[in-house]
Amino acid sequence: MAFPIIPIRxxxxxxxxxxxxxxxxxxxxxxxxxxxxxxxxxxxxxxEIGGTANALTTNDITQLAIxxxxxxxxxxxxxxxxxxxxxxxxxVIFLTTTPIAGLAPQLGADGKIPTGLLxxxxxxxLTYKGAWTVNTSPVIASGGVVGxxxxxxxxxxxxANTATLSPAIDGQTQVLAGDIIAYNGxxxxxxDGAKNEVISVNNQTAIAGNITLTPANIGAVSTAQxxxxxxxxxxxxxxxAGAISTAQLPIATTAQLGVLSIDPLSTNGLFIxxxxxxxIIPGTSTVVGGVKSSASIEIAVDGTATVASAGTY
Length: 313
Fold this sequence. Notes:
This protein starts with 7 loop residues before the first strand and ends in a 6-residue tail after the last strand. It has a 4-stranded mixed beta sheet, with no helix packed on it. The protein has a 4-stranded mixed beta sheet with strand order 5-9-12-13, with no helix packed on it. It has a 3-stranded antiparallel beta sheet with strand order 6-7-8, with no helix packed on it. The protein folds into 5 domains: 8-51, no CATH class; 86-116, no CATH class; 121-191, no CATH class; 216-248, no CATH class; 250-313, no CATH class. With 313 residues, the protein is mainly beta. The protein is 4% helix and 23% strand.
């Protein structure tokens, strides 16, 4: 047979006090008719187990967005900002402290995030990574490769030596000591860092920063050619009198001299070829080594010599 539960009520109807521990037996229930709170005495003493003051009623559910009641959600199912209490500085103290990883960034006096709290890649800053021994330490390759990894945007190295790149890096084949190699996020950029740098002279590309010209590059005669006198393709050799010897002169043709009249008839005795070579037709004339005359000799335009007056020759 079940025993009915007969709660004990407060003796003073207007009292809002909870029952004292001595007024209840273990497991007895008491009710405060003023506050409608329900109490029970347990092993630890009297405890409140209910009461309409803290209970949610149907009326409460219909009174949305009212102080002390339930917040009203918007059409997106979210609490509107107007129903959210503003945060106090004390509640977000980390905003005013030294920057801590994983928390909100600390704003400067101008209300902006200081550049020191931003990653360098966001505003294109360069990060010095050290000296670069070209081709060896570290090994750098096209596309931002550094050793077994990849550089971050803005990483740069300064070449410690002059060398030809092997293989080429993003189209660059030559680096001088002091040059800078910087990663732009896609490829390496090369910045001339040497104080004095010559790219080319007379279309001759620099090798290790140097330009070597040969006489042929500037159309000059080489030293070797100057010492090879009277050599085909070289310089003519002068005689002791400072003149070019006849042995180094080509045979003049009639076309070059323009003063000889060539008669092809062999009967004339002296025959001159088209190349300017003269020969005696045997049996018809004699070779005269020279002429000494005491008379005036006139030579016609056709080469005929005539003694103008009596004399010997």
